[in-house]
Design brief:
Blueprint (H helix, E strand, L loop, with lengths): L2 H12 L15 H10 L5 H15 L3 H5 L3 H8 L5 H17 L4 H5 L3 H9 L6 H11 L9 H9 L8 H9 L6 H17 L3 H5 L11
Helix pairs in contact: 1-12, 2-3, 2-9, 5-6, 8-9, 10-12
């Protein structure tokens, strides 16, 4: 099957998936989603929730109030998430980046996604996966996230993919001509599949068993 056929097969078998968007039970604002993307690095969501509650209490997730924080004042707020010094620096740099764009998320949504990605990657503590998460779920730039679940699924399907994130992503995007919502849905499907299908024997019993991905 092609990558597009894989997407439609998963969508038929698994049905519509919930994914992060502002104003849902998972996140109130785009900035909350951005902060969560940084805080969840190398930890689980259970450790992120207290940090987000603290940041909401202190800043309301408003970029101007985030920029008023210092490394000393933000660190205790996010300590539960681990690696808090690095994450504190990344959050403060992200808030500064938003300020450089006048905190205008609408303009960023209509801007050059490639340029915005490069600017996000220039922030220490924001890597490829975090940058793409921010782009896709807060700034409406469709892309493909090369996370652990995606790598494992493609391997199970017999696809030999590049080892580096950019090369893997480029190869997928060249064959995946779908819009923003489909990109968001595809990522959600892959991650939900990965949470349910964890072993080779799980995969052998799944609806994708016996399929081969052509890339």
């Amino acid at each position: 099957m092609t990558i597009e056929e894989l997407y439609h097969t998963m969508a038929r078998a698994m049905g519509p998936q919930p994914w992060l968007k502002p104003g849902t039970p998972w996140a109130e604002t785009p900035v909350e989603i951005m902060l969560g993307a940084i805080l969840v690095q190398n930890t689980n969501w259970r450790n992120v929730e207290p940090a987000l509650r603290n940041l909401k209490r202190e800043t309301g997730f408003e970029p101007t109030r985030l920029r008023a924080l210092t490394p000393e004042s933000i660190t205790p707020l996010i300590q539960s998430s681990g690696f808090y010094r690095r994450k504190a620096a990344a959050i403060l740099s992200l808030a500064a980046w938003l300020g450089d764009h006048d905190d205008d998320l609408s303009a960023l949504k209509h801007g050059d996604g490639g340029q915005e990605r490069a600017e996000l990657l220039a922030i220490t503590g924001i890597g490829n996966e975090t940058a793409d998460y921010i782009l896709m779920y807060t700034l409406d730039h469709g892309t493909f996230m090369v996370d652990t679940y995606a790598r494992r699924l493609f391997s199970w399907l017999g696809a030999t993919m590049p080892k580096t994130y950019p090369a893997f992503q480029k190869q997928v995007l060249a064959q995946f001509p779908l819009g923003l919502r489909d990109c968001q849905e595809f990522h959600a499907l892959i991650d939900e599949f990965g949470k349910q299908v964890k072993t080779d024997s799980d995969f052998a019993a799944s609806f994708l068993a016996g399929q081969h991905l052509t890339v």
